[in-house]
Amino acid sequence: MVTTAAITGRGWAAPPPVRQQELWDGFFEDHFDGHRLARAAWNRSGVQTRHGAVDPRVEDVSTWGTEQRMQRFVTEAMPLGAAAITDALKDAGLSAGDVGQFAVATCTGYATPGLDILLARDLGMPVSTQRLHIGHMGCYAAIPGLSMMAAQTAVRGEPSMLLCLELTSLHVQPRDDSGGRPDLEQVVAHALFSDAAAAVVVAPDAPGVEVIDVVARTDVEHSELMTWDVTDVGFRMGLSPKVPNVLAEHVAGAVDELLGRHGLTIPDVARWAIHPGGPRIVDVVADRLGLDDDAVGMSRQVLADHGNCSSPTVLLILDRIMEAGLDAGDPVVLMAFGPGLTLYAALLRAR
Predict the structure, then answer these.
(1) Span 250-277, mean pLDDT?
(2) Where in the sequence is the domain holding 187, given as residue range(s)?
(3) How far apart are CA 344 and CA 137, in angstroms?
């Protein structure tokens, strides 16, 4: 008998919200010398509210060394991760003692022992729980992480847990006092990225949303267009404006492959969870796939309400989709993008 794996529980947590305009007025306007190009980029972000473990108006981390930022990462990540996991387990009707496999995805902090060990210990997962740490995949990490947990669940017949947790607020870069034009890649990164933790429980032969299939595309010829470099003052984002156009070349082919293997076409998909790396990303995907505003509405709304939270973001969109309700048999497609340049997409089906 083939064991299937389905998302049967979900939970998320985030630091207190702050309005995007308040962040500009209270910190980033001065940080970028009030430059008109920086202001324009900030206003085009599509973000209305964000969450930050560190509020730069209260605590400016831009001159902190990486060691100090990593110490703070563990301090802030532990309660957020625990809250998201606890809610997901409750939603699934399970306890920490039921978890057979536990994966943590993050690209914004390092610790050894890692969050997988520390959270498993504090929440009471069995000592036999198998663990996986997924690092530096960036915004698309939730999908390969979900694929791995679904495979483990199907093979071993035990519930699995995936936690995606990012604290981008710890990586505000130092102010540039050269007096010239601001680095617009840094402006855009600081305007988009936000903090959150999202967790899902994947259980064998369970009600929920079954994980059906996953596809990937990696365009290594354009890998320099998106980077996330570890520096002496935190992690620095490189984000070229060419990224949406390059990813656009791969979207239709990846989706056609994913759906075609299961006898589906784009109109058959009930819901889309498209990672909103920025407004242009959503625009390009919608254009290439022929999706209307309603199909990408939840992606845009999550960007407005939470910003780009990196790896948890697509799970936040999925949470809204499941909360709104699905009919049995409804196909759902998750899609996310990150360094590589890499595109991942997953096909789910409601039970």
Answers:
(1) 97
(2) 5-204
(3) 11
